[in-house]
Amino acid sequence: MRKVPQPVVVVTTARPENPEYRRGITVSSFTSIALHPFPLISFCVRKPSRASDLLHEAGQFVVQVLSSHQVQQSLAFSSPNQEGVDQFKDVPFYSDPQTHNPVLMGSVGAMHCSTHNVFVLGDHELWVAKVDRVDHGVGSMRGTRDESEPLLYHDRRYHGVGEEVFMQAFEDHTLDFRQWTHRAHVRMAWNYLREMNQEEATPLIKHGIESYYKANKDKIQFVYNETITGFYIDLIHKAVQKDKLSGRSEDDDFFEFLERYPILKDRKVIKDYYSRELLDSDDSRQQFIEPDLQPLPTVQQLANESK
């Protein structure tokens, strides 16, 4: 399936009695089903999720085919919906006057849909939707009908839609610097380490970090630290190896990976292993140095600490 080009699609909806309660999700397996007697499309949503709950509650939603310049929008909706967090804060959109559902600006096209049928298949729901009307590029950032190229993914190492666009944005340096958080660092390294061994992945991770910061040097001053990078590569590699031993080598969900190893979410965990004096030293910046407070955790210790 990696050889098959597919568009990146975001589904948005809102609570009927409270349109300000809205959700968006980057979906997978989008396809057209039928044209007659009325248009039908389908997409898959992981279950359980808050997005799935709201889709069931609303019964109406908008399916947007993203354009090639909407990588950031795809990223914004590829992460789990956190309660109280406005996914649309930095995303240009408008509310449809008929349904009050959010419509992303700048898409190739938006399909206003209603639920036709939902099938539970494994850990996903297959949504079959009736297309009630179509906007061709309405909501363009330039205020015109925008026939831009769709955002596609195919034939890359990264399997999931979210990972595909995340890694593309990171490698192309188009990832918004505000999204380059500790969690994003871990996500990037995880993508490399699950696809290749540690020796192959390490230089790509280091080069990627330095290259990304160089491209964003006008936004922040950055001093690369070999020891800090090596420490987190070691932890992530061990977690990936633990997953492989547990039969999770094909797991494609980064956010479930973090739930299994919450220690990786803690950017301060390195202080349990290294003193501030050592991390601030010139030697630690230039070469990897073993911890001075306690040894690096083993695979089993990492799994135990994460329980």
UniProtKB/TrEMBL annotation:
Keyword Oxidoreductase: yes
Pfam families linked: Flavin_Reduct
Annotated SUPFAM superfamilies: FMN-binding split barrel (SSF50475)
Domain Flavin reductase like: 1-160
Domain of life: Eukaryota
Keyword annotations: Oxidoreductase
GO molecular function terms noted in the UniProt entry: FMN binding; riboflavin reductase (NADPH) activity
Name of the molecule in the record: Flavin reductase like domain-containing protein
Organism: Mortierella isabellina
